[in-house]
Amino acid sequence: MVNYIEAYRTYLRDERRSSENTVSSYLRDLRQFEAYLKLTEGPAVERCTSKEVESYMTYMAGHGKSASSVARGVASLKSFYTYLMGRGVIRQNPAKDRRL
User: Fold this and answer.
1) pTM of the model as a whole
2) Which of 27, 60, 73, 80 qualifies as a FRET site for 18, CA 20 to 30 Å off?
3) Are 55 and 40 in contact (CB under 8 A)?
4) What is the 3-state secondary structure (H, E, C) of 24-60?
5) What is the spatial distance between Cα 4 and Cα 75, in angstroms, rounded to a whole number?
6) Buried b or exposed e, range 79-93, using 16+ CB within 10 angstroms
7) For 16, which DSSP code?
8) Section 59-76 average pLDDT
9) Band of pLDDT at residue 44, cut at 50, 70 and 90
């Protein structure tokens, strides 16, 4: 099975030449989302729908995350899912158009 988060890390570092801070932040956000999916017995990260993204946003806000932290998390998800779309893994970005 492909580890899409690790593949995304390679993409950020090698293709986009993102800073280590950016890579670290994006991956932390993605791993937190992945942990949430496991906690809620949700689908694998590459099979998520907008429903799971919206539920995660609500979960973060309900667990004391600031609006800016929630927004950054969603931005990380949007970027990740855009990457998956570009690789032909998914057809739609479930984080697109998600706002607080």
Assistant:
1) 0.91
2) 60
3) yes
4) HHHHHHHHHHHHHHHHCCCCCHHHCCHHHHHHHHHHH
5) 17
6) bbbebbeeeeebeeb
7) S
8) 93
9) very high
